[in-house]
Design goal:
It contains 6 helices and 18 strands. The chain is an alpha/beta fold and 358 residues long. The protein has 2 domains: 257 residues, QueA-like, CATH 3.40.1780; 81 residues, Beta Barrel (Thrombin, subunit H), CATH 2.40.10. The radius of gyration is 21 Å and the shape is globular.
């Protein structure tokens, strides 16, 4: 596998501004809990050429897949990265959100309230986990060093015991089952948020898809909290994307290339898988095995090199993800689809319904 440090796409000139991606969403359509059955969520199918729409259940996605096609999913696993505890000095409540682990073993975190987490402060979580604040870094984040009993094999075992899922801010209800914020194929630990398009798949549906002859490949992109960072500039091309770590192996890259040459379609499951594939594909459409960090920002005007279709959820107004799907299907088709979804009372965002763009 080739190592690549960072991938940034070239700036694309556009007349569109951030406000062009606003739509009005009634708050009651923001899904607060997952559907009882993963693949029973609704599925809005959009033809990216004609703009035609049709309404389905997610398990019917198999009807739109051909034997020569290939699905590419993001196998990243969400860390139970939200910690609720106390500051040892005064016993006051404190909340820690883990962002990333550094080479020296310390973690960069978001802390609330910051006044209880000055350098040298110690924090306690669940009677098991201790954290010492070692530094204040960029944007007021804290670097902390964790200690825990030897009976735990790793920090991840401790987090499974005392941590909570870092649900997006628009979800206010308690999640009773942690696994419902994980895909059924999640395995590579490292995300601060779920690649939510994959939440609709069940093991049974995946098996049926494979039996049809459809390829099923995995890439990894560890989703950062920058996913929820709003676009604050008027001119889209001035927005700076957050860097996220990705990897794609030799076998997956080779199978994608083989199926592309045979006339199959590459269908990304989620915008994260899409961003990996577009980051690792050259101008000739050849997918390369590599790992690194990507800041690729896809918005209208971008020419797709890797994917032909996309399975995705419904995204926040004025978000980079809404801009990405607009690049694939055209802004007018996407905004019409979203207005239709609102009218038809689809469920939006992480625990919401799905869209297939073909």
């Amino acid at each position: 596998m080739t190592e690549q440090t960072e991938i940034v796409n070239k700036c694309i000139a556009t007349d569109l501004v951030t406000a062009d991606f606003y739509y009005d969403l009634p708050s009651e359509l923001i899904a607060q809990t997952p559907t009882e059955q993963r693949d029973a969520s609704r599925l809005l199918v959009l033809n990216k050429e004609s703009g035609a729409l049709s309404h389905h259940r997610f398990y019917e996605v198999i009807d739109y897949l051909r034997p020569e096609d290939m699905l590419v999913v993001n196998s990243s696993k969400v860390i139970p990265a939200r910690l609720l505890g106390t500051a040892d000095k005064n016993g006051g409540p404190i909340e820690l959100l883990l962002l990333k682990q550094h080479a020296d073993g310390t973690w960069e975190t978001l802390v609330r309230p910051g006044k209880r987490a000055r350098p040298g402060a110690t924090l306690s979580f669940g009677g098991i986990l201790k954290a010492e604040v070692t530094a204040i870094v960029e944007e007021g984040n804290r670097r902390v060093r964790f200690t825990y009993p030897d009976t735990y094999g790793s920090i991840y075992e401790v987090l499974d015991a005392v941590g909570n899922m870092p649900l997006p801010p628009y979800i206010t209800e308690h999640l009773s089952d942690k696994d419902r914020y994980q895909t059924v194929y999640a395995k590579e630990i490292g995300s601060a948020a779920a690649p939510t398009a994959g939440l609709h798949f069940t093991p049974e549906l995946i098996e049926k898809i494979k039996e049809k002859g459809v390829g099923f490949g995995e890439v990894t992109l560890h989703v950062g909290l920058g996913t929820f960072r709003p676009v604050k500039v008027e001119r889209i091309e001035e927005h700076v994307m957050h860097a996220e770590h990705f990897s794609i192996g030799e076998n997956t890259a080779a199978e994608i290339n083989r199926r592309k040459r045979a006339g199959g379609r590459i269908i990304a499951v989620g915008t994260t898988s899409c961003r990996v594939l577009e980051s690792v594909t050259d101008e000739n459409g050849e997918v390369k095995a590599m790992s690194g960090n990507t800041k690729i920002f896809i918005y209208p005007g971008y020419k797709f090199k890797a994917i032909d279709a996309l399975i995705t959820n419904f995204h926040l107004p004025e978000s980079t993800l809404l801009m990405l799907v607009s690049a694939l299907a055209g802004r007018d088709h996407i905004m019409n689809a979203y207005q239709t979804a609102v009218r038809e009372r689809y469920r939006f965002f992480s625990f919401g319904d799905a869209m297939l763009i073909v």
